[in-house]
Amino acid sequence: MNHRGLLRSFALGALLAMSISSGAGQQLLTDVRLDLPAFNYDVLYLADFIDVASRKLASNIADFSGSIVAVPDGAAGQIYLKVNASIRLQGDASPIDLVRAQTEPFRLAGRRTLSSRDLASGSTSEIKIANSPYFEDATQKKRLEDYAARFPTAPVGEYILELEAFDAVTNTSFPGSRTIKTITIRNASPDEVIVTLLDPQPGAIVATILPTFSWSSPNPKVKLSVYEKLPVHQSAQEAVTGIPYLNVDLVGLSTYTYPADAPRRLEQNKTYVWFVETEVSTNRGTVRRRSELNVFRIQTSNPQQQAVEQLLNSLGSSAAGTFATLQNIGWSPSGDLTLDGKRLTREELANLITRLTGQNIEFHLRVENVAR
């Protein structure tokens, strides 16, 4: 085979690697069915497909499986294939033709299995790429080759492969053979996939037992998980080693409300941890990418907490920070607010805060844990 560079090898190799898998029949071909390899990856490592140094197709590509099937079953005849490969990289307005080529005529008998070994250097396959007609966009070829010299994976974008079978005697297309496959590469690396949690924020007090979660993920398939953070847990990381309250697989969503019919219900005055995980599919396997862990608390109504929060927020950032820390570890104020042994109403507390904030008074805050 006359290899014409890294890009042609990649485009044609993904479509045309073929080997004989069944015996010939005597019926004449009326149609050809083309089944292309799946190649459904978010990230694709070029070294597994192409020897970048020699610019030749690798002889053994994992999961490279497809077929060319004669119609009717067992039919045989001389055919050739036309191939068009185009690309639309990130930022491009529309696809650009990269390679247009066709094979030499070859005999199809029954079916052929697509494999990379047949187009590798030194292959003895009957399939040969014709020198003419042949078109290759030199600018786009160099664009991709320069990228491949600097990075180990294919650039983000769409790779559109079109394949069509023709009768070698009449030069007419088989009506059912035209096949178009779009390969979408979403990420240049698994490490660039970052899932961001939007709501509830860390330390949030949520006023419902059916909170709505929202997040941002570059990949559409995610798993949302919620765990209870018990008093014995020293950290959010420790909490998520327990039994989940919720584990749900979602596709194409960025918000989800805790279901009312969930097997495990969220409860008032309890603390929970939530995170979102996505999968990045590569030709070397699946890589999981997880968001940060956010802690929140269910508190539908707590007048004491509102009063304490109002008081401490008025005393400055140090007091407010102490209160936030107490909330994160699961503390919830209860009982009455008193001053010099006298119970304060909400109105009296509000008046006290107003007077204190208008004076230059130094405060010292101490937190005590009183066992009951």
Structure description:
The chain is α+β, with helices and mostly antiparallel strands and 372 residues long. 17% of the residues lie in helices and 35% in strands. It is built from 6 helices and 23 strands. A hairpin with a 2-residue loop joins strand 22 (338-339) and strand 23. Helix 4 (303-314) packs antiparallel against helix 5 and helix 4 packs parallel to helix 6. The longest helix is centred in the middle third of the chain and has 13 residues, at 138-150. The N and C termini lie far apart (84 Å). Mean pLDDT is 78; it is low at 1-7 and 10-25.
Helix content: 10-25%
What coarse outline follows from CA principal-axis ratios? elongated
Q: For the CA atoms, what is the radius of gyration?
A: 32 Å
Counted by DSSP, the helix tally is 6
Order of helices and strands: HEEEEEEEEEEHEEEEEEHEEEEEHHEEH
| Structural class category | alpha+beta
- Mean of all residue-level pLDDT scores: 78
Q: Strand-residue fraction?
A: 25-35%
Low-confidence stretches: 1-7, 10-25
Sheet bearing the most strands, described?
Answer: 6 strands, antiparallel
Please outline what is shown here.
With 372 residues, the chain is α+β, with helices and mostly antiparallel strands.
